[in-house]
Design brief:
Layout (H helix, E strand, L loop, with lengths): L1 H11 L2 H11 L2 H15 L2 H7 L4 H36 L15 H29 L32 H13 L5 E7 L6 H9 L2 H6 L2 E8 L4 H13 L8 H12 L4 E8 L4 H14 L5 E7 L2 H7 L5 E2 L5 H12 L9 H12 L5 H12 L4 H8 L12 H11 L3 H9 L9 E2 H11 L12 H14 L4 E5 L5 E5 L2 H10 L4 E5 L16 E6 L4 H11 L5 E6 L6
Parallel strand pairs: 1-4, 1-5, 2-3, 3-4, 9-10, 10-11
Antiparallel strand pairs: 6-8, 7-8
Length: about 575
Amino acid sequence: MAETVISVVLGKLIPVATEQISLVWGFEEQLKELQDSLTTIQAVLADAERRQVKEEFVKLWMRRLKDVAYDVDDVLDEFAYEILRRKVEIRNQMMRKVCFFFSFSNPIAFRINMANKIKAILKSLKKIIDNAKEFEFASTGSINAIPEVSPNRETDSSPEGAEIVGMGGHVSEIVDLMLNATNEQLSVIPIVGMPGLGKTTLAKLGYNHEQVQRSFDKTIWICVSNEFDDKKILREILESLTQNPCALQTKDAIVKSLKKELQEKRYLLVLDDVWNEDDRKWDALRSCLLGINSSAGNNVIVTTHSDTVARIMKTIHQHDMEKLSDDECWSIIKKRVSTKERIPLSQDQEDIGREIAKRCQGIPLVARVLGGTMSNKIEEREWLAIQNSEVWSSLHGENEILSILKLSFDHLSPSLKSCFSYCAIFPKDYEMGKEELIQHWMAEGFLQPSQGNSSEMEDIGNDYFDILLANSLFQDIIRDDFGDILSCKMHDLVHDLALLISKWETLHLGGNGGGVTLTSVIFDVYLLCLKTGQHQQSHYLEMAWADCAQFFVLVLILETGYWT
């Protein structure tokens, strides 16, 4: 992630800011040297990012570079703060005539302090540049920190639609199972398959099917994820039915309210993304569901990657997802790359695309993400770069899919990489508000306008959001009545990718962690994310301050779903 940090820092070292700082304190020469050093390093970062996957010494070099880049960012922020502070003092005519020599507000003391910091940074950067020469990195020139977004660019606001490829038979079978399971009081139908095969998409297609909606009095969708808590699930069911927050504190009270809502009504409940393999937890929820409604014909659809979960919960036939054929993967990719403003694909491009489709391992998510990346590439050589990537020869073990998805991440601009990896702060299946997310990107300095670009920061943030959505790194969008996007989610695998990329910079505490302790591995944490209930906040904050040497950003995610 050093590439993204340096991109942000260079964005702050624009000539106007440099001139303003040097005019007041005479740092023009040092800041020019700093800018030149970072630009020199930036030219080899693409090769370094690629080589650190296999070379441990390069990985350590990248971590040292990242630490120095954050130091530069801190210095620039101190300059910006001091300039603003002095403007406020002058405006309010509150300048002190007498102050202690070593006061931070003293211009001479401040200049000495900053001069020492810049000197130390330049010394560190010189060592880093000398090491880079030893590694013999390939220079790719200066990296454009801001993606060029064409005003006529056609973004796919609903990329998950491509996953419908190959779903026809699956949808018919699931709908038949739901409609015909009328004898039992509670029928449980698991949809099982590895991550990325489209289990949730299939469940949605069945859930929204016209015949299904007519057959059930109430339909409820709950995203469970890895935290299976019967009281929490029951509360969310009640909130879904009433469309109001639930203030009830006890499980008995919630069950009593659910009885009123579902009395003599046939309901369909979808429990999406279930990880729980403890049969006692399922028995507790099942007992409550049986007590809520004694009518026959109630259905529960469960999506899970685990055969153990399916075995514990199922009452009738289990539906197993299958991988797509190579032709079906190519169909998804082709749909993503074939837009109205694009010229038809050449035969060579189609041949390259089909070769890439063969490497999607039959997983729709992979085809969607790679298709989104390829849609931004016009030249045949750019598609060949994806086909000939070293990623394909280094696939092994459980992280094969993540390695393929990272190929898409590697083709993002530095600023977009920052915006994407920042999303790792949220829990899985979290509904990210678009406006709040863009505001956080702005606060982090990720949205740097390119040269000659006079767009507002919000407009740049909207463009970034659209690009990540078009690349299928965002999904499950929710729109308002005017068609504007309010929120989105990340697929579990995509969220895993964001966590993998940001693991040295972002620390998560809370959730089901229980007695979490911090280790020296996360000595320097840039972003600390706490997921906690109201009564646990002080406990986790004390842990953070006691065990983290330093962190720059604190994000608090409450169990209620609000975050700050």
